[in-house]
Structures
1.
Amino acid sequence: MRRFAKSFCYAFCGVVSCLKTERNMRVHFCAAFYVFMLMPFYGFTAAEKAVILLTIGSVISAEAFNTAAEAAADAVTLEKRPELRLAKDAAAGGVLITAVFAAAVGFVLFWNVSVLKEIAGFYSEHLWAAALLALSAIVWAVLIALPCGRNYEDKNTDINNKET
């Protein structure tokens, strides 16, 4: 049971690591944040909510897999090798495809002029909510703009001795 619990800890650390090192992961989390902020304005069915959750999960997972592929390729060698370039480009292409289709899902489910007017009305009537929305945009802009760099050395984990 202890190993099982540790596996969740390692997985959580992987997500945090992706957020620290990958700007695009932060962009995807930002988009998910605003999707969750808009959802209450829509009368989505359970199936539509499930599609939104699966779409968000797919994009974030694709970005994590891309990060893993890039890290694995970089661990092999930093030399420019065509097969590693193909692996990295294909993984990045997978993220792009997933994100484009996620945007299409978002357009289909969220493009409703009457609801968009309702949202605008809500924020114009509730200035505190508009201020919080503006503050969140500033916070996300700062988080996304933070420098990212890959540092694969984790001082708390010895990969060779890690329990699996």
Note: The two ends are 12 Å apart (CA to CA).
2.
Amino acid sequence: MGRKWYYMVVRAKNQTFEFRRSMVEWALAEGVSAAARQFDTTRKTVRKWRDRYLTEGTNGLYERSRAPHNCPHKTPPAREQEIVRQRLRTPGYGARRLKHEFELEPSVGAIQRVLRDNGLVRKPKKKYQKKNDLREVKKKYAPFSRFKMDVKYLNDIPHYWPYLTGMGLPTFQYTIVEVRVGAIYLAFADEFGVLQSRAVIVRFLRHLEMHDIPLRDVLIQTDGGGEFEGTHVVKKPDGFTRSIESFGAEHRAVPGRPNAQAEAESLHSRIEPEFFDIEDFASPLDFWQKIATWQNWYNLQRKNSSRDWRSPAQNLRAIQPDCDLGIFLLPPLHVDTLLDAQSGDHVPAQPVRFAGAA
């Protein structure tokens, strides 16, 4: 083979196709026998590709399917239709389950082929696709109707630890996240339990009530922690769940479900690097002032990438242009100070100032 054709073949993406094309060109120019000698093949092979080229052009030089023209053991159309029908009835069933649940005669491989040929094989969604779908669902919620509540331990944050031990700053953070627009409400405690959880949620629901939020439409979701009355909720008269229900709202505990508290967990992952890892505190009062400022900044100005780069306040205004932004301004609460002042028997109707504030 000449150097020109050699380099053309070696550098080609489809070397087999380029080899046949070069062989055909040689045969048309020099003859079949010369091409057979030059390309080290038989004259029959040269004629085969030459004739295909003359009949079909360059398309004739590509490899043809070697599949048989008929398949005696192919699944009959009636059985294929039955597979398709059962799959449409139960779109979550795979080939193996379809066969066993509906006692289908074709093999699992045949059922899988039928599903594939009819476009019924679902590709697993990637994580970002699931998140996008979930965001679309959440956009249908009414503002301030769905909330996630959780507790964050603060005693494992190295930068915050010296202030916690040296100044007696809180050890636990109560977090309430509004699902639709992304607003957050924080409270802090030296201990956590049902008593503290009840104080936080009662104060919060009264805040919503003051801003004319219909509490009958409000759902508070928590995990199965004991501070929220545990996995099996026991509705004590003065407990966490009964306190919520006394306002006409609903409490739902969702223990053991992955990502059930995603909004609260996401906030916990943000507040640590954006606040606790970088802020220094000159006094307890300085801590309360800074955390109140951070919460207000988060609700009113911080742009959220998962919500079209808009702050919670901007999201609410996009839905309700005449909204009252005062609903975002519930200051962080020191729960233990409140409970000490009230002996745990009563939570004031009006939001109270945090400990040490003027």
Note: The CA atoms of residues 222 and 253 lie 5 Å apart.
3.
Amino acid sequence: MTPPRFIVLEGVEGSGKSTQIRLLSAWLAGMEVPHTSTREPGGTAVGEAIRGVLLDRDGLEMPAETELMLMLAARAAFVREVVSPALARGETVLADRFDLSTFAYQGFGRGLDLEQVKQMNAFATGGVEPDLYLVLDLPAEEGTQRQARDGKTLDRIEKAGTGFLQRVREGYRVLSEGEGRVQVVNARGTPEEVHARLRGLLQGNFPETFGIPAV
């Protein structure tokens, strides 16, 4: 059995995370690598309910601190009900967002104290950490243009504006500096081109899990 890995895709809105999760899942299925694909906030009954409050309640305003604590409440269930059980079963976990999003969005984007955010997050996760974060990097305005072209209805956080999303993008860049578990990936190009970049990084970092089997 190959070692299971916890892999997270991160990035600003419109960077293509959901598409890449689907492509990676299909790739792993083709190699018969057992895995779970999921998203955050969400992935559990309580997480999806919190997601609805955080993202889908148009016009609902809340303090940044409230937003943070809702995110962390969803994460506590996500780790205990989805991530830890899947890893224990020997399954690799592919997640659309995890705690790096919180550091970038609520820390850099909303301006909350980053060290305090990290301390609160550690309580929510119980120490569970991804093996690798793949940050899909794209200028905020390009992500917004992609969403408009695709006809996407913006959620509450996406409506925070380009300035907010630019701070988030810069946050991801700062968080990646000197952190080997965070790798920034160019999100420009076709979905297939970006997928090839991600696949190469996974195979390079964890060949025992993602290497192509010998024929």
Note: The first strand starts at residue 6 and ends at 11.
4.
Amino acid sequence: MKSKQIINQQNRYYATYAKILRNPRYRKSWDYIFKNIKGRKKILDIGCADGEFLTPFIEKGYDCYGLEAIDEAIRDSRKKGIKVKKGSFLEKFPFRDNTFDIVFAGEVIEHTFDDDYFLREANRVLKKNGLLIITTPNLVSLGNRFLMLLGRLPRFAYAPFHYRIYTPELLKDKLTSNKFIIKKFESSYILISTYFNKYAGYFGEAMGSVIPFFGEHMILFSKKS
């Protein structure tokens, strides 16, 4: 199926998708950037949806860009002051080489047909030593292990428009083979997050940082080599 047909099918998922984004993947990515990257940088959010991830950076004066295919999402992002280009991450990114200091791709790579091409494109648009943040579901999370013991399908292994699924080692290998250096491996949470329960969620999110191998969503921070 052609990428444009897939994009059209994804449109109807947007309203739900924007709500799902509000979770610890964002908070942990924000914390890493603000603690480790000095100065106001040029940042790209691939599949930026309504622009929620970039909002704190806009407030701090970063130069914020987005790549998005859904018209409603583009309108929402532009209202926030994000410079959004309409396009698909399944194809060549509509940006010049060596443009960005930071590229964020949250829950995107699992939707690609050719993840090596996607990572090469991310590498291309990053400046030397630029930061790439990838988040994606973890096939071997603790929750999925329990599900499989019960004979149930692991979460995200079979989901709308998911063409890839990763373990921590596979994702790390993909990044290093595409000229990235892993700087930190994090995860969103183990079993429960504050999105579901405020108090138990704090513990689940903290454990996701302590033993990320068992986390629900992997968060890989890597540098362009």
Note: The chain has one domain: 3-224.
